[in-house]
Amino acid sequence: MYWDDAAGRYDQVFPNKIVGQAQREAVWRELEKVFRPGQHILEINCGTGIDAVHLAESGVRVRACDISPQMIELARRRLASSEARAVADFRVLATEELAALRDGPRFDGAFSNFSGLNCVQDLSGVALNLASLLKGGARLLICVIGRWVPWEFVWHFAHSEFRKPFERFQRVSVSREGRVKTYHHSVAAIERAFHPHFRLRRLRGIGVVMPPGQFERWAARFPDLFKRLAQTDRLLGGWPILRRMGDCTLLEFEREAA
């Protein structure tokens, strides 16, 4: 499995980078606005458990799932070294198989971070399963790949890669190794897939002003400037039009009353 192979290097590829940390902290601020200590939250496509452990350390109870056994093993190791062992648990479970959790109590909320749902073709099936798992009024936060990223046009045009930034507008793209398909869901398509079980409450761009991962070396060279751009991102990420121009887009849904 590709994700098992990628697990060992995952934290070095994105989370431990300057840009990756800044984007993750931006998502954490949004999660912390919605989820409260004592709530029981579901995370899908949890990777190595960074977000789940962070929330658990603040008192949120988290059940986190991922398709990759190796990712889950690394997540459990991360949890074992934290102070949140009693309020989080990890399970090997594909996003498409969430129906396996229906026998348990309903969750107070759920989230999916950093493009996990971009690996799923049938979002309507995921929406139906999540609707059966969440309480009425529960919040669902989804962070997916953005489509229109001005910083990427600057980067790729400067490197004479004129077609590259338009890949985000393709319905589906395939990695160079041919092992991973990425589905570039538009906001409208996601909203349709989750209707009528969920109502879209708001959008926010992640990485609207601060540049994406291609600028990692630049961010390391000019840390103060990058920090100011990240701070400006907090102010402008929710503005109409701009909120659709981030490296990632965060959608907040509310579960309609059952």
Topology readout:
Blueprint: H1 2-13, H2 18-34, E1 40-44, H3 50-57, E2 61-66, H4 69-80, E3 88-92, E4 107-112, H5 123-133, E5 134-145, H6 150-158, E6 172-174, E7 181-183, H7 187-194, E8 198-206, H8 216-221, H9 223-236, E9 248-255
Parallel strand pairs: 1-2, 1-4, 2-3, 4-5
Antiparallel strand pairs: 5-9, 6-7, 8-9
In short:
With 258 residues, this protein is an alpha/beta fold. It has nine helices and nine strands.
The helix fraction, in percent, is: 25-40%
Shape: globular
Order of helices and strands: HHEHEHEEHEHEEHEHHE
Number of domains: 1
Major β-sheet, in short? 7 strands, mixed
By secondary-structure content and strand pairing, the structural class works out as alpha/beta
Looking at the overall shape, the CATH architecture is: 3-Layer(aba) Sandwich
Strand order of the largest sheet: 3-2-1-4-5-9-8
Q: Give the rounded overall mean pLDDT.
A: 93
Number of helices: 9
CATH topology: Rossmann fold
Count of distinct strands: 9
Structure write-up:
- The protein is α/β, with parallel strands linked by helices and 258 residues long.
- It has one domain (2-255): 3-Layer(aba) Sandwich (Rossmann fold), CATH 3.40.50.
- It contains nine helices and nine strands.
- It has helices at residues 2-13, 18-34, 50-57, 69-80, 123-133, 150-158, 187-194, 216-221, 223-236; strands at residues 40-44, 61-66, 88-92, 107-112, 134-145, 172-174, 181-183, 198-206, 248-255.
- A seven-stranded mixed β-sheet has the order 3-2-1-4-5-9-8, sandwiched between helices.
- Strand 6 (172-174) and strand 7 (181-183) form a beta hairpin.
- The chain is globular, with a radius of gyration of 18 Å.
- The N and C termini lie far apart (37 Å).
